[in-house]
Amino acid sequence: MLSFETLNMLLSIGETELIEEFVIGTLAAPQLVVFFRKFPIFKKAVNRNIESWKRELAQRVQQEQVPELLAKEFVLYQHSQLLDTKAFFLSQEERILKLESLQSPFLSQANALMQASQSHQTKQHHHSEGLQTLFLQRWRTSLTLQAVTYHQKILAEEQEKLLSELQKKMDLSGSLEPTLAENETAAGKLWDMSRSTLRPHSDKTKGNQMLLQYGEFLSQQPELKSLAEQLGRSKPTQATLTQNTIQEEYRVITREPAAVPEEVNGITQSSDILRLLPTELAVLGISELEFEFYRRLLEHQLLTYRLQGESWHESIHTRFVTLSENAAPQPRGPFIVCVDTSGSMGGFNERCAKSFCLALLRVALADNRCCHIMLFATDIVHYELTSVDGLDQAIRFLSQSFKGGTDLSACLDKTLEKMSESQWKDADAVVISDFIAQRLPDDLVKKLNKERELHQHKFHAIAMSQHGKPGIMRIFDHIWRFDTGLRGRLLRRWQR
Questions:
Q1: What phi, psi does 317 have (nearest 5°)?
Q2: Which of 38, 74, 251, 474 is the most exposed place for a label (fewest CB within 10 A)?
């Protein structure tokens, strides 16, 4: 079966311009214009997706199969090109019948040209090569128009799908912007995570509402948000030129196209008369197409041979080399957040723990860091909140109920295993719990201390109760207290 990629190449159709027009038309859609005006922070994230849209559309068009009738008509056209003038006109009636059976849009023009050829033969007693060339050129134009029409049909279908997907992403991203999109980096990550999923529409709506509810709860607890920012922020890396910084030269040899022609390197469009293809010269010999030839000449659209050579060029570049041994502080790595889901963490504690994880997710998105959630009670459940389907995983995390016992030692052991992976070697661990649990094994405490000494990992504790066991909390580098009792809640409200 003939593919559109082959047909485009044989008919010299440039699908790039069609795709460019498609993208421009999509970005000019009223709903996108209104969305960018309301949420300008997402505009750069959408623009970053343009190239991937173009690649996907080009692949979609190239892989599409040409309709059967058009494919048969193109085969007939190719066969007719190989005939000489006499054989071409002898088979003209048969060709017209085939075009009629194929329901070709070129049929009416073909009939008119056949009548003109018959009239010319009656007067001149021979067939005209010019009429044969004109017939084939107009037939080619008709085939090109049919192919472009099918292209536009495919692109219209893709545009409808894309706008539908963008609408869903705009609804979710716009609603979560106050909660999670702190800067352009966070907006870009949030936009990528807002892709549609295979969940039923009712489940999507319920999950999105849950995200919004916890986001609203977080806005009512500014202390949680401030605590997450204190825990998650670090000084950015700063590159400063000191007295020990010098400039060093280095040479690069690159191959560049040369202006001197050496060999035929393809076909291009230009106005170079000396390199015209024979088919273009044939057009000039037809009086009916002479003005068309001059128009294409002025617009540099004549098909010509492309001649090109190459040469090697040496360029000199400079770079800064720092000799100082003092390094600026590096930004912190990803988060591994361990959340206690025991029965004692239910109610208000549960809402605070989940909202605090959303606040950490906001920090992770803004700093382009990864955030991994581990729920621990009797079993351990993992969620990757900054992955491509991070919002789906966040919804599943928020849907979990807190009940059961507390197995902190198993969670810390899994955390150390996670830190041994290359992606998480610079991670900081955060444990959210009331720390009403059993004593930790000595072997685990030694292993944790050894890991801290070797790799400088930090272990933070978010204590949601005043009754946590000091023997357990002693292993952490920092303890952040957030009293969720009635007294603490009233005190925070009074301080506001």
A1: -120, 165
A2: 251
Sequence-separated (6 or more) residues with CB below 8 Å from residue 132: 85, 88, 89
Rounded Cα distance, 40 and 168, in Å: 17
- Sorted by sequence, the CB contacts under 8 Å of residue 224 that are 6+ apart come out as 218, 352, 355, 356, 359, 482
Q: How far apart are CA 486 and CA 479, in angstroms?
A: 21
Distance CA 285, CA 110 (A): 21
Write the DSSP assignment of 321-361 as a string of letters.
EE--S--PPPPP--EEEEEE-SGGG-THHHHHHHHHHHHHH
Q: What is the DSSP letter of 422?
A: G
Confidence tier at 248 by pLDDT (50, 70, 90): low
Q: Region 106-133: what's the mean pLDDT?
A: 74
What are the residues whose beta carbons fall under 8 Å from the beta carbon of 292, sequence distance 6 or more? 283
Exposed/middle/buried for residue 458 (C-beta within 10 Å: 0-12, 13-18, 19+): middle
Look up residue 389 and give its two tokens: 């389907």
* Residue 261 pLDDT grade (very low, low, confident, very high; cuts 50, 70, 90): low
Task: Please give the pLDDT value at position 63.
Answer: 73
Q: What are the residue boundaries of the structural domains of the chain, listed by start?
A: 1-196, 245-322, 335-495
β partners of residue 374: 338, 382
Work out the percent of the chain whose per-residue pLDDT is above 90.
0
Mean of the pLDDT values across residues 331-343? 80
User: Residue 135: its pLDDT value, please?
Assistant: 86
**DSSP-assigned states of every residue in 236-269:** PP-----TTEEEEEEEEEEEEEEEEEEEEEEEEE
What does the pLDDT look like over 432-469, one tens digit per residue? 888 887 788 888 888 888 888 887 788 888 888 777 77
* Spatial separation of the C-alpha atoms in residues 185 and 195, rounded to whole Å: 17
Distance CA 119, CA 128 (A): 11
Please give the mean pLDDT across all residues of the chain: 75
Confidence (pTM): 0.56
Q: What is the CA radius of gyration of the chain?
A: 35
